[in-house]
Fold this sequence. Notes:
Layout: H1 2-15, H2 19-33, H3 40-63, H4 68-78, H5 81-110, H6 117-140, H7 149-165, H8 172-179, H9 185-217
Helix pairs in contact: 1-5, 2-3, 2-5, 3-5, 3-6, 3-8, 4-5, 5-6, 6-9, 8-9
Amino acid sequence: MIALARYSLSMLVRSQAYIAPILLFGAAIMVLTTGDAGPLAETYSACALVLFLCMTWLTVVLVNTEDRTQRAMTATAAGGETRVLAGNVLAATFVAALLTLTGLIYPLYAGRHPITGPGLAVGVLAQLTAAFAGIAVGLLCSRLLIRRTGVAVLAAVGAVGAMVLLRVVPPVGPMMVLLGSEAAPETMLTPLSGLGAVSVLMVAAAAATVYYVGRRQE
C-alpha cells in the first residue's frame, strides 16, 4: 500500500497539477494569519477552512492524474482497483498531514498567540477534520465517479459551499461554529474529536461509493 501511495504522489508531482492548490493554501494562510493576535481557535478556524477547499481540489487532481486506460493497467499490476483507491486515499492523507503541520506552525510564527497544549490540539483536530472532509468530497467529484469535468467542478463547488454555509451539515459547518465561539479550547476537544470521526467515516463512505458506482459504470 505504501508503494501505491508513493506512486500516486509521484504521478501528482509529475503532473504539476498540485501547484495551484498548494499556492492557494500558502497565500491564504499568510494573508489570514500573519500578524494576527486574536484567539488561536479562530485562527485555526481560518486555516481549516482553507485546508478543506484545498484538499478537495488536491484529491481530485491526485485521483485524476491517470486516465482510464492507465488506471486499469495500474489496477491490474497492483492487484485490483481497491488497492489503487486505497493508495490514493493514503497519498491524500500524507499531503493533508503536511498541510496540517504547516497550518499549525505558521500562525504561531507569524502571529501573536499564547501557546497552550489544548490550543494546539484544537488546531490539529480542526485541520485534520477539514482535510478528511475535503478528501471525501474530492473522491466523489473525481473522474472515477463524475466523467465530465464541468459537472465535476459544479459538484465540487456546490458540495464545498453547502458544507461551509449550512452550519448544521457536519463536519465542517458545526466545526466552524464551535471554533468561532468563545469556549475554552479544553471544552472543544471532545466535540472536535467526534466531528473528526465523522470526517473519517465520510472518506470511507466516499471511497466505497466511488468503487461500487465506478464498477457499474464500466
